Structure formats: C-alpha cells, structure tokens
C-alpha cells in the first residue's frame, strides 16, 4: 500500500519522530544514503513559484542517487489542461513519486486518488508539511527534544501556521498562533490540533494578543500575503505592522530564536536585524528542507 504525504495530520508521533531521526542521519552521514533512491524518478509539479522547495528537492534527490523531472504550470493551472486525476494516473506510469505545489488542496487529494505512487505536498492553500518537518528538525537541533519547544507563530493564519500547529500538536509541543483579527487560523484546523493535542499533551493556543507569545523560545513569522493572495499590501499593512517580528518583540517575549520559512520581506513581517542576527535560524531551516525531504522520500519510497 502506498502512503501519501498530504498533511502529516494522519501520521503518528512515532512516525514523525522516526522521520526526524532519519533526517538527522541523512544530514550527518550523507555517504550512507548515496544510493538510497537508486533508479527512482520523482515528478515535481509546481503551479506556483519556488526557490527553496524546488532546489532542495532536486539537489536532495540527486544526492540520494535518484532523478527529478521538474514541470511548471505550463502557462496555466496544472489542473486546467487536464483533470488532476488523469495527471496523477499518468505520472505514476513513469515516476516513483509525485511532488506537487498547488493552489488547491483538492488537486492533491485528486492526484493521490488515482496515482499509484506516493504524492507529496510541496505547499498548497492549507498546508506546508515539508516546511514543518524541516522546522521541527531545526528545533530538535537547538533543543534536543521537540516536546520541550515553546514556539509562537505570529502573523497571517496560513498554510505554514497550519502545518506547524498540526505537527506541534502531534509531537506534544507548546504552539501558539497569534494573528491579527480577521486573519485567524481556520476553526477546522484548530479543532484538529486540539484533538491531536489531547493524545500527546501538547499545548495549543490561538490568540490575537501578542502577550500570548511571552515565554516562547522561538518566534516564527511568514509573509503577510501568501502566493495567490491579490490583496494590495497597503490594505493590510497597518493591521499587520504591530505583529512584525523585531528586536523589541523578541525582548518582550524573552525569545532566543527567530524563525521564518522564507521568502522573507525585509522590514515588513521581519526586520533585517533579526534575519541577519545571531538569533536567526532562517538558513538552518532552509538547509534542513533538503534533509527533511530526503527522509520523507526514503521513508515513502524504500523499505529502509
Ligand atoms: N519556504 C519555501 O517553501 O520556500 P519556496 O517558496 O522558495 O519554495
Ligand atoms: N505562506 C507562504 C509560504 C511560502 C513558502 C505562501 O503560501 O506563499
């Protein structure tokens, strides 16, 4: 039976911890994994732009001895030229896995339905699971134990906040999401996070008050306008400005580390002082994208 990675919400704590361990091993001992994907091919479909995801999958797959074929949107939504179900079924005739960055989560669900090979979510409107795994790998490197993590995500309730919430809830972490009014995380995601937290002992908080971030070691932010959101920046800037990640907010919360999935918008959601400062984990997060994804690929494509 093939396994997909659409959200991680249906993965157990033990499965996530073993993925984190594998990611750490591939990072520390790359030579041991040089042939892990020998003879395997991955089709990577991108409806939206990407720097980190595209390059880290391509180079990561290469380092494991596999091959990646990149397909962009070919001047339109992928699911516009042909049905996502047909696309998934066809790609699975040649590829051993499909990595896809799409506008609508439903496109991934449809592809996964018909593709006989694993489908991996490389970002959609609701989730960014590969990012969350890289982020918790980074947290693990800093703290040693992800369940000890107190992380506040500050900004727009979006795909990145959702995946951090769900993964933190499974891993038993303390995750707080602080958003301006009107930009909260969807109720359905929060309900799911609360129900996962009941099993793991995680603490989940959603608030519009920045005081909720006090005591967190990690402050995390993301763009105020996600790809595909055509709202003019001028319309939301004043509302989001107090939520900017800056030195003052770090000090107020007693936080040690600043995180951002990137692309970052300097002096908007985060200051250059933090991006380039000692407290920045941004490049460690970016580097860990490749190791996290390599662990996902090895786990889904091989009997490792
Ligand atoms: N963090 C992230 O997914 O970056 P890209 O959009 O550049 O892939
Ligand atoms: N929330 C952002 C993440 C980019 C990696 C977006 O969807 O554009």
TrEMBL record:
InterPro entries xref list: Asp/Orn_carbamoyltranf_P-bd (IPR006132), Asp/Orn_carbamoylTrfase (IPR006130), Asp/Orn_carbamoylTrfase_sf (IPR036901), Asp_carbamoyltransf_Asp/Orn-bd (IPR006131), Orn/put_carbamltrans (IPR002292)
Lineage: Bacteria, Pseudomonadati, Pseudomonadota, Gammaproteobacteria, Alteromonadales
Enzyme's top EC category: transferase
Naturally occurring in which organism (per UniProt): Bowmanella denitrificans
Domain Aspartate/ornithine carbamoyltransferase carbamoyl-P binding: 3-141
Statement: the UniProt record of this protein carries the keyword Cytoplasm: no
Family: Belongs to the aspartate/ornithine carbamoyltransferase superfamily.
Protein name as annotated: Ornithine carbamoyltransferase
This protein's UniProt keywords: Transferase
């Amino acid at each position: 039976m093939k396994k997909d990675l659409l959200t991680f919400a249906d993965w157990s704590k033990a499965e996530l911890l073993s993925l984190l361990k594998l990611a750490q091993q591939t990072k520390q001992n790359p030579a041991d994994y040089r042939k892990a994907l020998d003879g395997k091919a991955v089709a990577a479909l991108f409806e939206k732009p990407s720097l980190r995801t595209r390059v880290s999958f391509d180079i990561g797959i290469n380092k494991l001895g596999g091959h990646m074929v990149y397909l962009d949107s070919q001047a339109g939504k992928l699911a516009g030229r042909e049905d996502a179900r047909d696309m998934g079924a066809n790609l699975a005739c040649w590829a051993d896995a499909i990595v896809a960055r799409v506008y609508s989560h439903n496109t991934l669900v449809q592809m996964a339905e018909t593709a006989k090979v694993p489908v991996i979510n490389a970002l959609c409107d609701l989730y960014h699971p590969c990012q969350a795994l890289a982020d918790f790998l980074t947290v693990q490197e800093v703290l040693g134990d992800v369940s000890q993590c107190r992380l506040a995500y500050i900004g727009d309730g979006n795909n990145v906040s959702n995946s951090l919430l769900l993964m933190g809830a499974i891993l038993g972490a303390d995750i707080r999401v602080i958003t301006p009014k009107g930009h909260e995380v969807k109720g359905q995601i929060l309900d799911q996070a609360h129900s996962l937290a009941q099993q793991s002992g995680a603490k989940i908080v959603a608030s519009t008050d920045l005081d909720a971030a006090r005591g967190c070691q990690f402050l995390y932010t993301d763009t105020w306008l996600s790809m595909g959101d055509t709202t003019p920046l001028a319309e939301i800037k004043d509302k989001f400005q107090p939520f900017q990640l800056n030195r003052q907010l770090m000090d107020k919360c007693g936080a040690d580390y600043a995180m951002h999935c990137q692309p970052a918008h300097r002096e908007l959601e985060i200051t250059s002082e933090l991006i380039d400062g000692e407290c920045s984990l941004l490049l460690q997060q970016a580097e860990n994208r490749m190791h996290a994804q390599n662990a996902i690929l090895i786990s889904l494509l091989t009997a490792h």
